[in-house]
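Sharing in case it's useful to others searching the archive later.

Someone asked me privately for the predicted structure of SRPBCC family protein, so I'm posting the question and my answer publicly. Question first, with the sequence:
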Amino acid sequence: MEPVTATVFIARPREEIIAYLSDVANHPEFKDHFLVDWHLTREDSEGVGAGARFRVKMPFNRFGWGDYTLVEISEFRVVERGRSGKFNRNRTMGTWVLADAPGDTTRVEYTYEAESNMPSDRLRESRGWWKRKTAKSLRRLASILEENRDRGGRVTVAGR
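And my answer, the predicted C-alpha cells:
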C-alpha cells in the first residue's frame, strides 16, 4: 500500500508531544476509534522497545490483529514498526515527524506504510480508510494535548 500521511498543528511544545508519543499506553487515547482491544507487550510502556497489540476494526477484515513496537525515538521523530494480518505476515511502519512551527506550535506529521506480500492481502488494503482514520486520530491527538478532552482509556498489560 502506498504510504498514508496526515498532518496537524498542535499548540504544545515539541518535547511534550515527543514525551507523550513515546509512551505506548497513551496511543489508545487517540487511536481507539479504529484500533481496539489493546494490550501492552511488556510492562514498561515507555521508550524504545515498548509495544502494543491490538485489533484493527476494518470492515471485512478477518485477520485484524496487529502490533507495533517503538524502534526509534529522537527529539524530532518517533518510529514504530510492526506486523499485522494473517500469520502476522504484513509489515507495517508508522513514522511521527515533529517540527517547530510559527506561533509556538508544533507541526506533527504521521506516515503509515504497510507492505503486503500476498495478493489476497493487497486486495483488502483500503488506502482511503487508513487516510480517514489516521487524520481523525491526529485531530484527536491535538484535542487531547491542547484542551485535555476526548481522552480514551489507557492500555494495560495483558491479563490485568
